[in-house]
C-alpha cells in the first residue's frame, strides 16, 4: 500500500516513514504543510495519508481541514491524524464527516511500532481507529471546567501569559522555541473554546478564564 506523510517535525516525520516502510507501506511523498499534502494526494492518490493535526503556517487546525478536503475529494484515501494531545473538537469534526478509513491517534502511539503498524493497516483498509484517550475525552461531560483540559505545560504557559509575558518571554522562561509556545497557546485557545478572532483578544479571554473572571 502507498502512503503520504504530512508532518512539520522532521524527526517525527523520519520516524513515521521508517515505521510505515517496516509495515510494508511504500511512502510516495513526505511533506511539511497542509498545502503540500493536498498536492501530494492529488498527484499520487495514496491508500493512506498520515497527517499532523497542527502544521504551518498557523499551527492550529491546518491538518484537520486538509484531512476533511482529502476525504471529500479523494474518498478512497484513508486518513490517520496524529496529535500531540487530545483535541475533542477536531476528532468530532473528522468523524462527523466520514467514519470510513479514519484514524485519530496521539503521537506517543508511534513508539509502539507493532500496534501503530496494525492501526495503519486497519485504517488503510477502510476501518476506524480512535486513541483510547480521545475516546475518554469524547465521553467527558461538557460542563466540566475547561481549564481541566489543559496539560501541565499549557497551564504553565497560561500562567506566564497572565503575568504579561510575550511569546518570546515565555519561550525564554520555559527554555523552548517560540514556535513551541505558539503551538501551546493555540491549543489553549482551542481547549477553552475561544472563537477564532483577533489573536490579542483571545489572549485576553484566555487570561480571564485563568483568573476565574470569564
TrEMBL record:
Domain Response regulatory per the UniProt entry, residue ranges: 2-122
Occurrences of domain HTH luxR-type (ranges): 143-214
InterPro entries membership: CheY-like_superfamily (IPR011006), NreC/VraR/RcsB-like_REC (IPR058245), Sig_transdc_resp-reg_C-effctor (IPR016032), Sig_transdc_resp-reg_receiver (IPR001789), Tscrpt_reg_LuxR_C (IPR000792), WalR-like (IPR039420)
Record keywords, A-Z: DNA-binding, Phosphoprotein, Transcription, Transcription regulation
Domain of life: Bacteria
Residues modified to 4-aspartylphosphate: 52
Protein's name in the database: Response regulator transcription factor
